């Protein structure tokens, strides 16, 4: 999954951070592209967490 995201970002000549959380809001994947600042990596994690309810997933 992260590889696909990075490949798509590369088509726009961009480096990205990728975060994936599980249904329990636990981070299961967090990667940072070359030159991407730590604040963007934290923002990716927060965005993944925030997206859970929109995806129809509820936490226990």
Care to give the gist of this entry?
With 60 residues, this protein is an alpha+beta fold. The chain is 45% helix and 18% strand.
Brief descriptors of the model:
60 residues, alpha+beta, PduO/GlcC-like_sf
What does this structure look like?
With 60 residues, this protein is of the alpha+beta class. The chain has one domain. 45% of the residues lie in helices and 18% in strands. It is built from 2 helices and 2 strands, in the order αββα. Strands 1-2 form a two-stranded antiparallel sheet. The longest helix is centred in the C-terminal third of the chain and has 17 residues. It is globular. The N and C termini lie far apart (25 Å). The mean pLDDT is 86.
Overall spatial form: globular
- Distance, first to last CA: 25 Å
Q: Helix and strand succession?
A: HEEH
Number of domains: 1
What is the CA-atom radius of gyration, in angstroms?
A: 12 Å
InterPro entries: PduO/GlcC-like, PduO/GlcC-like_sf
Pfam family, one: HbpS-like
Organism: Hymenobacter rubripertinctus
Protein name: Heme-binding protein
């Amino acid at each position: 999954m992260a590889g696909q995201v990075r490949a798509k970002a590369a088509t726009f000549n961009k480096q990205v951070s990728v975060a994936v959380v599980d249904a329990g809001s636990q981070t299961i994947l967090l990667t940072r592209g070359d030159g991407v600042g730590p604040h963007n990596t934290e923002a990716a994690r927060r965005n993944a967490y925030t997206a859970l309810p929109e995806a129809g997933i509820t936490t226990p």
